[in-house]
Amino acid sequence: xxxxxxxxxxDRHIAQIEAVAPDVELMVTTDRNMAISLAPEAEVMVGWNxxxxxxxxxxxxxxxxxxxxGVDQLLFPEVxxxxxxxxxxxxxxxxxxxxxxxxxxxxxxxxLHHAICQQIHHRWDRRGCVGGELGGGTxxxxxxxxxxxxxxxxxxxxxxxxxxxxxxPSPVPYVERVLPPEGLxxxxxxxxxxxxxxPLTPQTRGLIGERELRLMKPTAFLINVGRGPIVQEAALxxxxxxxxxxxxxxxxxxxxxxxxDSPFYDLENVILTPHVAGTSPRYMDRAIPxxxxxxxxxxxxxxxxxxxxxxxxx
Length: 314
Ligand code: GLV
Hints:
The chain is α/β, with parallel strands linked by helices. The chain has eleven helices and twelve strands. It has helices spanning 11-20, 32-38, 52-56, 77-81, 94-109, 112-120, 146-157, 184-190, 210-215, 233-242, 283-300; strands at residues 2-6, 25-29, 44-47, 63-66, 85-87, 138-142, 161-165, 177-179, 193-196, 221-224, 247-250, 270-272. Bound molecules: glyoxylic acid.
């Protein structure tokens, strides 16, 4: 069996994979063109944004394991139409992602983005730097999946009340009210901060537009660590420019990399990061053991973990 891995692996990761399946042949590269040329031999592919051409040129491909949680960028027609199993790395991102969300929330609330600008200009001005409080406020979580559950736990430590939406509502620790997706308006209207922790699917694409942003409190913050196209960017831009909401922490955008002339760079009520919320130096140390567990199952012909429902999109 040949496994094509498009990722930056250390020797220890390769050793972990070989220990699970000594007979496999690993083709490891960080070069997309190289991945395309090696693709025809692969039975298994591992990576985050595998090139569509690689998948199209792989007649023996049976299984794709994504090193990311979201697979919207991977569900090409070639993958949907063929009998190719897709699995994700969902479950490994909670620590960096939740810390990123709270870093953004705390920075916005405590106005650290203003303080940093002032520091750059050697200015001491307390007026622009007096922040608010997260404690006592309501955090609305759109998508109470693995990440949402972990966010709620941390929000409780900041003494926030938590509400949120979940596709199939069921009680979630630390969440006062779990609503179905139809409860979106209620969550937006009641929250002092809203976090988007949803996958990008046909149901969530464009979910947050002008109507939804206008439902939010003018004092509220919006954090998007899901996918850019869940929010209608033109409406968000106006919301931020015209004060329909107080600010935003954005890690994901409709177009990535965000073009240098994007107006989002210039908004003083935005903290933006280049799609790094789920990443840390420990990323592969979590991703590879999960892949190894799935590889062991695959070799034994057992059910894999984190299998994507291609119809649902996650
Ligand atoms: C990153 O965006 C991921 O989906 O893991």
